[in-house]
Amino acid sequence: MRDDELTPASVDRFVEQYRRATGLPGVAVAVTKGERIVHAAGYGRAPSGERVTADTPMAVASVSKSFTALAVMQLVEKGKVRLDAPVRDHLPEFVMADGRAATITVRQLLNQTSGMADSTFHEKSLPQPDSLREAVARLRPARLATAPGTHWSYHNTNFQVAARLVEVVGGEPFAAYMKAHVFAPLGMRHSVTVDTERDLPPSARGHLYILGRPVPLPEPHGFGNGSGGVISSAADLTHWMIAQNDQGRGLGGVRVVSARSIAEMRTPSSAGRSYALGWSLGSTPNGAPVVKHGGDLFTSTAEVVLLPETGYGIAVMAGTGLAFDDAGAIADALVAMAEGRRPVSPPAVSPFLLIDVTLAVATAVTLVLAALGLARSRRWAVRRTGRSRWGTASRLALYVLPAALCATAAPIFRVLSRGRDIAWIQLFYIYPTFMIWLVTATLLTIAVLATRTFHLVRPRTEGDAQAFR
Known about the structure:
Layout: H1 8-22, E1 26-33, E2 36-44, E3 58-59, H2 64-77, H3 87-90, H4 106-110, H5 132-137, H6 157-170, H7 174-186, E4 192-193, E5 206-210, E6 213-217, E7 230-232, H8 234-245, H9 259-265, E8 280-283, E9 289-296, E10 301-307, E11 312-318, H10 326-338, H11 351-375, H12 377-384, H13 389-397, H14 401-407, H15 409-416, H16 427-430, H17 432-457, H18 462-467
Antiparallel strand pairs: 1-2, 1-11, 3-7, 4-7, 5-6, 8-9, 9-10, 10-11
Helix pairs in contact: 2-6, 2-7, 11-17, 12-17, 14-17
């Protein structure tokens, strides 16, 4: 075996080593080279308890964007869609409050230069749609962040509009179109595309690490068809990667898209040179070109990496959420192995564990201090009798700070993440132990504030003063 060759044994060995080091509960991995399936396997268990195998359906999240882009390119090849025509020519229902939206082209949806962005359309924190039709309809009051074609901004709604376009022009529901024209021709027997988290099969749900242990949790509510709704398996993704690496031909020579369209899908815009049509472009540490896309749900992650020079395809689907990026870490390690480099091993002690322990201690300390504050509220109020009202008010105001931070956590996240949108409940999935501490602190400080305020305003008796002298 050459140093730059992946084998089933070397993949198994690394993945099991990674799982032992991190506690990753379940993961599926696929490796192809050219037209050959090197390996497809599952490891560990899903939250439902079933063993993960090569055929276990799991979420690929935003890797779905490459599937949506291919579906659009099929319609382009049939002459039903023009990449550089306004979206509204093909999808008249696509209307926004911003008049510039009339000039958004199909290509700009797929390379994410439409001008739509989380900063002006809060797609996650707004009420969620139940269908692609509703996803497009809710854009009516929205405005653009920038003029179409001038700036790149990663925004899921671009691909929801593109998927709706496929429905309307293709003449059938998006899920049916994908099954008939993409999944079935490529032999992807376990692949579907779904609308919301309610449609996820039990095996496609995931976990968060809390205090170093994987905890199964339901995915928070959200809509993802077109942008993140594909459910697939390791075995199915081998077929997908072979088609990508063989100019649009799957196993057995079945063609789902032309070589010209594959090249088009890997051609970026001048406004976003590292993003093409549903694919990210980059290079390995060795300088080899990479075509890839990652995918993040709040309880699972995925990564598909194509190495055009060597013909390798690597896919990983992990049963832990976006805060941990296990899929990306494993994919990076397998790319390193494919290039003859030593993969980066996970740390002996996870930094997430150290953070969790620190925040768990902070939560315990907060509980103790709050208990003392509640027990001493009457004494505190008596001692404040006769003192400056402003001084007393300023002391009580400090107890409002955790509540203020809790209420503004989502807007603060948007600022720190340069405009990316998030719903308040979703913060629990990114920072679980921090949010547990923050909510605990908020509830307890409100209780102390209410108790001390009550004792301040209640009628004072002579016995109160004598009791606490």
